[in-house]
Amino acid sequence: MKAALYFDVGSPYVYLSASRLALDDVEWKPISLGGLFKLTGRSSWGLSDTREAGMAEIEARAARYGLPPVRWPEPWPGHYLGAMRACLVADEGGVLTDFARTALQMGFVEGRDLSLVGEVLEAAARVRLDPEYVFERITAPEIKQRLIAETAAAHARGVFGVPTLAVGQRLLWGDDQLG
Fold this sequence. Notes:
Mean pLDDT: 94
Helix content: 40-55%
CATH architecture: 3-Layer(aba) Sandwich
Number of helices: 9
Strand order of the largest sheet: 2-1-3-4
Distance between the termini: 20 Å
Shape: globular
Number of domains: 1
Order of helices and strands: EHEHHHHHHHEEH
CATH topology: Glutaredoxin
Structural class: alpha+beta
Low-confidence stretches: none
CATH class: Alpha Beta
């Protein structure tokens, strides 16, 4: 059984993991972290009083890992539904991993706000997906429903945050667990 990586491109912890780990032989599974928060009754630490400390920790990890300095999108966190739906479109086109890595790079190295559809379409263009097609598909009812279903399935499996790596029945949650 192939390992699966549950992710959302709005997560800086996913950025850290995807930037430093060989995840090419892993099935990337896009889910909505916001949707997962609704299912679990949780919220983002980026909206809490631990925000500044969390951001500093991520910046320190990036430096330890030898990654470029983190540039935080403004605002962060944002609403990444369009970006996550675009991940599903990229999956249909066979370029999910490339698209996700590009989106994460744009978000946390370039500081681009992936809650803006123009930025999502730029990520699509960078991986040779037709931006007009992606724009059309991210509003399609079946793509919206697929993201809801993928998120619900991840929750039912026991996923409560990202990144989560599923290896068989074992779930490893967090950048610090994936190394």
